[in-house]
Amino acid sequence: MFDRRSILLSSPALALAASAATARAADDPAANKALIRRFFEEVWSTGDLSRRDAFLAEGYRGHMAGAAEPIDRDGWTAWFQGFRAAFPDARFTVEDMVAEGDRVAARLTMRGTHLGPLNGVPPTGRAVVVSGMSLERVADGRIVEGWNENDALGLLQQLGVLPPPPG
């Protein structure tokens, strides 16, 4: 039987144990990698925006190469809709992933056909293969921040907007 003192003394220990378990779950690299892989399979490769909120936190901040300011979740949605209009058949392959704590880095390959306008470039009908990298920060099982880079120069060359490299 416990007396009141033993219950009070054990409460901070229980709270500390629960806090440590929560920190471990948030910093679980394997779980975070699985989340990012599913994001590219279930949203990026399908265009299914109905799954967006299962992956992107309400306060999401996205850092895009060349953008002056980060975008929020609705800004990401608008950007993604434009991307999917340009490449409606886009499919992403996760080539490599590395995770530490709450961050996941992924090396990606996108394959798709340019069937809609893209930043003023009319549809070319050309098939493209573009490499990219994504670094995501995860908290409470959702992506809260992301940094993305892709081979935009290679994409423009494949679309015929820029000449191929010499050599």
Cα(first) to Cα(last) distance is 82 Å
Contiguous runs where pLDDT drops below 50 for at least 5 residues: 1-24
Rg from alpha-carbon coordinates? 21 Å
Order of helices and strands: HHHEHEEEEH
- Decide which structural class fits the backbone: alpha+beta
Helicity, in percent?
A: 25-40%
Q: Please report the number of helical segments.
A: 5
Shape: globular
Round the mean pLDDT to the nearest integer and report it. Answer: 89
Let me know the number of strands: 5
Strand arrangement in the largest pleated sheet: 1-5-4-3-2
| Major β-sheet annotation | 5 strands, mixed
Q: Please state roughly what percent of the residues sit in beta strands, choosing from under 5%, 5-15%, 15-25%, 25-35%, 35-45% or over 45%.
A: 25-35%
Overview of the structural elements:
- There is one protein chain.
- The chain is α+β, with helices and mostly antiparallel strands and 167 residues long.
- The protein contains five helices and five strands; from the N terminus they run αααβαββββα.
- Strands 1-5-4-3-2 form a five-stranded mixed sheet.
Show the helix and strand layout.
Blueprint: H1 4-26, H2 29-44, H3 52-55, E1 56-64, H4 73-86, E2 91-100, E3 103-113, E4 127-139, E5 142-150, H5 152-158
Parallel strand pairs: 1-5
Antiparallel strand pairs: 2-3, 3-4, 4-5
Essential attributes:
single chain; 167 residues; alpha+beta; five-stranded mixed beta sheet; 5 strands; 38% helix
Write a brief caption for the model:
The chain is α+β, with helices and mostly antiparallel strands.
